[in-house]
Predict the 3D structure of the following.
Amino acid sequence: MQDISEFSRRTGKKIGFVPTMGYLHEGHCALMIKARDESDIVITSIFVNPAQFSPNEDYNDYPRDFLRDYHICKSCGVDYVFYPDTKEIYPNDYYTYVNVNALTETLEGKYRPEHFKGVTTIVLKLFNIIKPHFAYFGQKDAQQAAVIRKMIKDLNLDIKLKVSETVREVNGLAKSSRNTYLTAEQKEEASALYKALNEGKRLVLKEKMYDTKELKKEIKKFIETNSPDSSLQYIAVTDNNNLEKISNLKDYKGGVLISLAAYYGKTRLIDNILFEK
Ligand code: PAF
């Protein structure tokens, strides 16, 4: 992979990279198509990264279907699919991990303490293997995008991060490989999450509800009313760049990120909405 990338770079080609854990959906396709538009060579990686799952999470159950993914990559204009073996990425004597402090301690990081260390480690390894000029991520994992942006800046990586809007089902449910765990009824119910986030945005921009405690209470109420089978883990209102909590939006200027996580049975879903205030 490094030889292919090096050759492409030396012949003046721009490399666009879409990292994935496979079981691809339209959200991944949108990233690949954007990469196809903006780069000469498009590379996708498919690797279910054990380092970002804690022992009680779904590493073993995570959906995998390489042939299906390979055909999706081809139909979205990908030139190379990087599909490494776990032992090749993490041999027995593997000792090096990358950590972005502060940004990884809030939101998802509170409930998944080792998760981002695993993400930054694999993403940096993939950047070194694939040597991209552009790297494509989805806004659905808003904190992941912020953490990678910070890693790129702090480590002076010569890579341009491109974050694309979340792709959704017709009912608003964010596309996710984990949606395969949901029943049809749960998929319908879980559409309430995005509706609730939109209601939150409306309350801020139209009703001028600036006290975020009150705002979170309203979003929670909306979810409990419209999705009784959900179990909400958290709702947070933060600055989109540093992910710091905002307690009152009255004098705040900038990107407001409302994010949440909720369980449907054993399936944990995340979603968010980003808007300018
Ligand atoms: O967003 C994902 O699918 C993963 O976290 C990533 C970026 C491919 C790293 O394993």
